[in-house]
């Protein structure tokens, strides 16, 4: 099954457009787990198991694992998701951007070492920096397009033939770059007008939309701007507002409640 096929099935099966981001910061992990040598894995495992019924995908951010020498725990976590929650895609949020043999190694890292179903990439170096990922024909390649951070406009709004640069990225991603049919785009929830513009360019291409929850993106505006004709087309990511919803031994149950409420609030506007 390809990434887009798995994602489409998850949208329907769990009636969800919610992507749960996994950004484990050890200082915020509940105290009763912190002494464990695999605290990051155990924290994320319990979050995953509790929120899986309400999610269409999971998105571990690699920096939160690598900074704490927990890459082996990330491998275990993705293997756990695949084994215990089959069919829920895992997007490795790595934002890689390099060319040639280096990009080939980053692709191997994402898809062979970590066994992710998709990876986020930076298109700044052009198509040849994406080709090694696209060579893994069933895997998703999620290209940064219009990011949710304030500084994104420094480059993404540069004029290119009368249009902002992010729209050029969208057109390329939906056209000549999409050799595998598995490309998606990152478009931030903090800019719903830009979500609508991108949707108009790319048709039904899946959009990974960060920025709801702790970053304050408007759920109603996001859904109305980004939904496809059948009410899908998005992975709306929430990380901190879900995984840190509780701080005690009941943290997983609190995360499940937050995930269900977020999913349901999204569905109210589909």
From TrEMBL:
GO molecular function, one term: orotidine-5'-phosphate decarboxylase activity
Residues in Orotidine 5'-phosphate decarboxylase domain copies: 17-255
Gene3D superfamilies, A to Z: Aldolase class I
Assigned EC number: 4.1.1.23
SUPFAM superfamilies for the chain: Ribulose-phoshate binding barrel (SSF51366)
Protein's pathway: Pyrimidine metabolism; UMP biosynthesis via de novo pathway; UMP from orotate: step 2/2
BP terms from Gene Ontology: 'de novo' pyrimidine nucleobase biosynthetic process; 'de novo' UMP biosynthetic process
Catalytic center residues: 95
Domain of life where this protein originates: Bacteria
UniProt xrefs under InterPro entries: Aldolase_TIM, OMPdecase_AS, OMPdecase_type-2, OMPdeCOase_dom, RibuloseP-bd_barrel
Catalysed reaction, written as an equation: orotidine 5'-phosphate + H(+) = UMP + CO2
Record's keyword terms, sorted: Decarboxylase, Lyase, Pyrimidine biosynthesis
HAMAP family: OMPdecase_type2
PANTHER family for this protein: OROTIDINE 5'-PHOSPHATE DECARBOXYLASE (PTHR43375)
Family stated for the protein in its record: Belongs to the OMP decarboxylase family. Type 2 subfamily.
Entry protein name: Orotidine 5'-phosphate decarboxylase
Species annotation: Pandoraea eparura
């Amino acid at each position: 099954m390809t990434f887009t096929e798995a994602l489409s099935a998850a949208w329907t099966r769990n009636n969800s457009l919610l992507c749960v981001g996994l950004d484990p910061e050890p200082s915020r992990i509940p105290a009763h787990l912190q002494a464990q040598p695999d605290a990051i894995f155990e924290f994320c495992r319990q979050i995953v198991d509790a929120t899986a019924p309400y999610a269409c995908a999971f998105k571990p951010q690699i920096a939160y694992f690598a900074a704490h020498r927990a890459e082996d725990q990330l491998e275990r976590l993705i293997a756990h998701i695949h084994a215990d929650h089959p069919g829920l895609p895992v997007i490795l949020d790595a934002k890689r951007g390099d060319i040639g043999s280096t990009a080939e190694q980053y692709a191997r890292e994402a898809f062979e070492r970590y066994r992710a179903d998709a990876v986020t990439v930076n298109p700044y170096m052009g198509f040849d920096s994406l080709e090694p990922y696209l060579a893994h024909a069933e895997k998703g390649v999620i290209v940064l397009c219009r990011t949710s951070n304030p500084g994104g406009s420094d480059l993404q709004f540069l004029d290119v033939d009368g249009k902002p640069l992010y729209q050029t990225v969208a057109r390329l991603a939906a056209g000549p770059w999409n050799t595998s049919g598995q490309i998606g785009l990152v478009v931030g929830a903090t800019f719903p007008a830009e979500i609508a513009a991108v949707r108009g360019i790319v048709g039904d291409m899946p959009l990974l939309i960060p920025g709801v929850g702790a970053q304050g993106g408007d759920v109603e505006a996001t859904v109305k701007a980004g939904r496809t004709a059948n009410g899908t087309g998005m992975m709306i990511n929430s990380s901190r507002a879900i995984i840190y919803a509780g701080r005690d031994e009941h943290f997983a149950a609190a995360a499940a409640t937050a995930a269900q409420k977020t999913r349901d609030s999204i569905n109210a506007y589909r």
